[in-house]
Specification:
Blueprint (H helix, E strand, L loop, with lengths): L1 H28 L4 H6 L5 H11 L5 H13 L13 H36 L4 H15 L2 H15 L22 H12 L3 H37 L2 H8 L4 H30 L2 H6 L5 H10 L3 H29 L7
């Protein structure tokens, strides 16, 4: 197992290196530059040239690239060209909100998708299967921003059931101890002797989690259905039933234990994608996460921020997939890595 992990880590190095080269070239091919964003309405050709000179953007690209890689190797992801803040500091401040939103979306997708997939598989080609199929197709077809605004309008504006702005109510004055709104709300509730901060944090995450988790819900449902149907037709499942085992034991021990592998794979892929792809949801619900930061950085041509964030997301995606691969050995003891 250790050798497998080492090989995966070594194999990731050239991938990340190639990605860094492509990113470095791509962001500089975009029209405009950080100087225009910094100067705003005061931008003139001479001032833009002066700012580019001060930022070191007039030097050869290969010199800029090797300096950037040198800083990365020392753990320095650079600072924003626009406001001068360090990428790591802002990332650590914003990423907890994105993690919380992603966990909420996964909880919604897994908690509802797996039971729906199992129910659809048990009633394959029947009415219930058809209803589940319609739900999954609806979830994967409707754009996230459309679903987000619809949920906000009905449950927030019309019914006043749930909040539609951010991940916490700023008027409650909850101190940011961990930068995870739910954890901070729980700590504030314990210290203050009231459940209001914790309940508020839970309420704020519901709508954005549903909006972000709609597509993963559809994917998990369809994969679970397909995996359960495929495993149910295997000889060892029919043998287990012929031996007189209860349907519950057959389902839990023989069917789901083998159906978990493809389901786990898709959950891992969705988790990595959600961490890097919560842009629209964060924009709709005005969440101060990493996704909205990426959009602002691209708009401002903040090269260092865009490069560093994409590389961080790539590393996260690789780590999640590595964890999924390692989890295979625990889900199915027949799988061994040499």
């Amino acid at each position: 197992m250790a050798r497998f992990i080492v090989r995966r880590v070594i194999a990731a190095v050239p991938v990340l290196l190639g990605l860094s080269v492509l990113l470095f070239i791509f962001v500089r091919l975009l029209p405009g530059g950080p100087a225009s964003a910094i100067l705003g309405q005061h931008a003139t050709p001479q001032r833009i040239a002066d700012v580019n000179e001060a930022l070191g953007l007039t030097r050869p690209l290969y010199v800029q690239y090797f300096e950037y890689i040198g800083r990365l190797l020392h753990g320095d992801f650079g600072s924003s060209y626009v406001d001068g803040t360090k990428v790591v500091d802002v990332f650590l401040l914003r990423f907890p909100s994105t993690i919380e939103l992603t966990m909420g979306a996964l909880f919604f997708a897994i908690g509802l998708g797996i039971p729906l997939g199992r129910i659809a598989a048990r009633h394959s080609n029947g009415l219930i299967d058809g209803i589940v199929t319609v739900i999954s197709l609806f979830g994967i077809s409707i754009p996230v921003f459309v679903l987000g605004y619809t949920l906000a309008f009905f449950f927030g504006v019309q019914l006043h059931w749930l909040p539609t702005f951010g991940l916490a109510d700023p008027t409650l004055g909850v101190p940011a101890v961990t930068n995870f709104p739910i954890i901070d709300g729980a700590l504030a509730s314990l210290q203050g002797g009231t459940t209001a901060p914790f309940v508020d944090a839970i309420a704020h995450v519901i709508l954005p989690s549903i909006a972000l988790g709609s597509i993963p819900l559809a994917v998990v449902t369809r994969i679970t259905r397909a995996a359960v149907i495929e495993v149910s037709n295997e000889d060892y499942v029919r043998t287990a039933r012929a031996k007189g085992l209860t349907e519950k034991r057959v389902d839990n021990r023989h069917i789901m234990r083998n159906a978990w592998l493809p389901v786990t794979t898709v959950i891992g892929l969705e988790a990595g994608a959600l961490l890097a792809g919560a842009v629209l949801t964060e924009t709709v619900f005005n969440i101060n996460g990493v996704g909205s930061w990426v959009v602002d950085s691209i708009r401002n041509h903040d090269y260092v921020v865009v490069q560093s964030l994409v590389l961080i997301f790539a590393v996260i995606f690789m780590v999640v997939n590595l964890i999924v691969d390692i989890g295979y050995a625990f889900l199915n003891p027949r799988i061994r890595y040499s």
